[in-house]
């Protein structure tokens, strides 16, 4: 996996790291959105992605191709191991962006700010029923402030009202590749 040239960028991880960064101008805004289960403004997310594209310590430059990866909270140890292998790829030319875009504002912002810098190859949509997503999130024990039933229900409501239309938008462009995450992680990711 390390030689595939894929760099995993998790929008959620970037946002959580920025929220915790001392002196962050976005920290309180990000925390408020995470706590309320709403979507962080696109300008913030795109800026964090852009910073990671051009981070000289990781060898990434603008204009590189990437993949958008939509995940409906089906994370577990196997997928984390796979993502870690992608993170360790020193020659990344493809970015797998996890958890972005999530609503029409995200799509519009991406197209306005980033489209000239990266090409969407496809959207990987890993579908998982809501009840399984809640169960997996509550049992992952990562200590996230939004891993509680109330926040998860808000996030799922936001997902249905704002993210599903985005998946349909990309389906209309024949860019969506969908797989089911109902089975075990080994079956989904390998």
Structure description:
The chain has one domain: Rossmann fold (3-Layer(aba) Sandwich), CATH 3.40.50. Helices cover 48% and strands 16% of the residues. It has 8 helices and 5 strands. Helix 4 links the parallel strand 2 and strand 3.
Summarize the structure.
The chain has 190 residues and is α/β, with parallel strands linked by helices. The chain is built from eight helices and five strands.
CATH superfamily: P-loop containing nucleotide triphosphate hydrolases
Please state the overall shape, judged from the principal axes of the Cα atoms: globular
- Biggest sheet, open or closed, and with what strands and sense? 5 strands, parallel
CATH fold descriptor: Rossmann fold
Pfam families: ADK
Family: Belongs to the adenylate kinase family.
GO molecular function, one term: nucleobase-containing compound kinase activity
GO biological process, one term: nucleobase-containing compound metabolic process
Write the layout of secondary structure elements.
Elements: E1 6-10, H1 11-20, H2 27-36, H3 42-53, E2 65-71, H4 77-87, E3 94-98, H5 104-113, E4 120-127, H6 130-139, H7 149-172, E5 176-180, H8 185-189
Parallel strand pairs: 1-3, 2-3, 2-4, 4-5
Family: Belongs to the adenylate kinase family.
Keywords: Kinase, Nucleotide-binding, Transferase
GO biological process, one term: nucleobase-containing compound metabolic process
């Amino acid at each position: 996996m390390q030689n595939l040239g894929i760099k995993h960028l998790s929008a959620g991880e970037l946002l959580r790291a920025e929220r915790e960064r001392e002196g962050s101008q976005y920290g309180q805004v990000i925390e408020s959105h995470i706590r309320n289960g709403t979507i962080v403004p696109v300008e913030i997310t795109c800026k964090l992605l852009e910073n990671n594209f051009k981070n000289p310590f990781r060898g990434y430059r603008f204009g590189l191709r990437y993949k958008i990866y939509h995940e409906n909270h089906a994370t577990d140890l196997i997928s984390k191991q796979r993502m870690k292998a992608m993170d360790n790829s020193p020659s990344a030319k493809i970015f797998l962006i996890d958890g972005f875009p999530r609503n029409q504002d995200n799509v519009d912002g991406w197209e306005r700010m980033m489209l000239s810098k990266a090409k969407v190859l496809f959207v990987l949509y890993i579908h998982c029923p809501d009840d399984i997503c809640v169960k997996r999130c509550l049992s992952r024990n990562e200590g996230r402030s939004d891993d509680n039933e109330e926040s998860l229900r808000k996030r799922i409501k936001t997902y249905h009202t704002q993210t599903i239309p985005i998946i349909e938008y990309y389906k209309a462009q024949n860019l969506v590749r969908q797989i089911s995450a109902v089975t075990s992680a080994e079956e989904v990711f390998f």
